Each structure stands twice: as C-alpha cells, then as structure tokens.
Amino acid sequence: SYVLTQPPSVSVAPGKTARITCGGNNIGSKSVHWYQQKPGQAPVLVIYYDSDRPSGIPERFSGSNSGNTATLTISRVEAGDEADYYCQVWDSSSDPVVFGGGTKLTVL
Amino acid sequence: EVQLVESGGGLVQPGRSLRLSCAASGFTFDDYAMHWVRQAPGKGLEWVSGISWNSGSIGYADSVKGRFTISRDNAKNSLYLQMNSLRAEDTALYYCAKDMRPGTTGIFDYWGQGTLVTVSS
User: Fold this and answer.
1) Which of A12, A45, B15, B78 is the most exposed place for a label (fewest CB within 10 A)?
2) Which pLDDT band, with edges at 50, 70 and 90, does A1 fall under?
3) pLDDT tens digits for A44-63?
C-alpha cells in the first residue's frame, strides 16, 4: 500500500515560518490534505486539495505539492499552532485512505 | 453547526463484538459520505471504513476487512460500525468523520470527539 513519510518533529520560534513535509512516491500526482490535532482534541482539516483552505482557517496556513514531496507551510507561527499535523491522500490501492505518521510541531 | 456524536465504546473482551453509533446534526446527512477513523493511544490516525451517501460505495481498511461492517440510516441521521472478532490491536479512540462530498473522497471536514474502544481480557 501507499506510504506517506513525515518527520516526527519540527521546531520553530514564534513569528517564524514552519514547513512540514510529507513524502510519497510521485505524491505530486495525488491530492494531499492536512489535519491539525491539538492534545485531547479531534483533528481539524486545515488544507485540502494540496492548497485550499477551509473557511475559518487562517491564511497563514498554506500548502504545496510537487514531485515526491508535499509541504504544509505555517507563516508567522503562533503558540496556538503547536499541535500534531497529519498529511493524507486517497490512493487507489486496497487501503484507499492513507495518513502520514504525523509531525509534532513545537513552538519554542 | 455541524455536530457528530459517537457512542457505544467501552471495554470488551477479545473475540467479542461491539457496535458504535454516530449521531449527526447540523447538515443534510444524506448529502455526504461518512467515515470511521481510529487512533490508538499515543499513535497516529488510521482510516477504518467509509460509506457513500446512499450506501452504494463502501470501503474498509485491510486491517478490519471481514470483521467490521459500516452502515448508515439516513432517516435517523446516523452512522454505525459493527465490530466483530475484536482484537487487542483494535483498541483505539474511534472518530466519526464527515466527508466533503457525497462520494467517498476521503476529505474529512468535520470530526466527532470520538468514542474509546478497549479490547482486553
């Protein structure tokens, strides 16, 4: 089945830019979605179809996808952005919905 | 306001069964596909199963295929997951999630708070 690889952790200072990557074989040919999960809470969709933002998600959140890597970019990082972030795709294999292992974003 | 409220979780012995329910409100339930996604304690997200708006398309993760059955009752705005032959590795928080589309696109725009299933003797 398709595999998505994320770094376990990313650290960033407040006000700086965080980039969380999601690697997969030719992931650029798929649509990538991103979820934010804060401790004790359900996940929240922050980016869908590579770069679209649901209503209510700040413009500071953006996404891109090309080649073998998709990237979630969070600009002007705030303490409230500290969370686990998961990438996800729909694949034509036997397990159609695939999540990455998650990346813990720490705001220093 | 979209609300998804799961219920039915609990402690169950290996090999036994459990039925989860998800009550939906705040949107036209039969316009959207629905899913179950689980999260083992301290672990990542794992998709379990999805069902299209009219139950015409259903899918399962390999890990639960043949043991779990997803269904929905559009008249009751409810989603279900029948879990049979439960194993220790099925222990997780089970989330009900709404799809963005009528078909199963796998884009989850709303999630419930989850119901905890613990499989242990």
Assistant:
1) B15
2) confident
3) 999 999 999 999 999 999 99
Sole residue written with tokens 């036994």: B16
Q: Do A99 and B107 touch (CB under 8 A)?
A: no
Task: Choose among A91, A77, A60, A86: nearest CA to B43.
Answer: A86
Q: How far is A103 from chain B (nearest CA, A)?
A: 10
Put simply, whether A93 touches B (Cβ < 8 Å) is no
- Mean of all residue pLDDT scores within chain A: 95
Q: Helix, strand, or coil here: B88?
A: helix
Cβ proximity of A107 and A81 under 8 Å? yes
Is A2 touching B (CB cutoff 8 A)? no
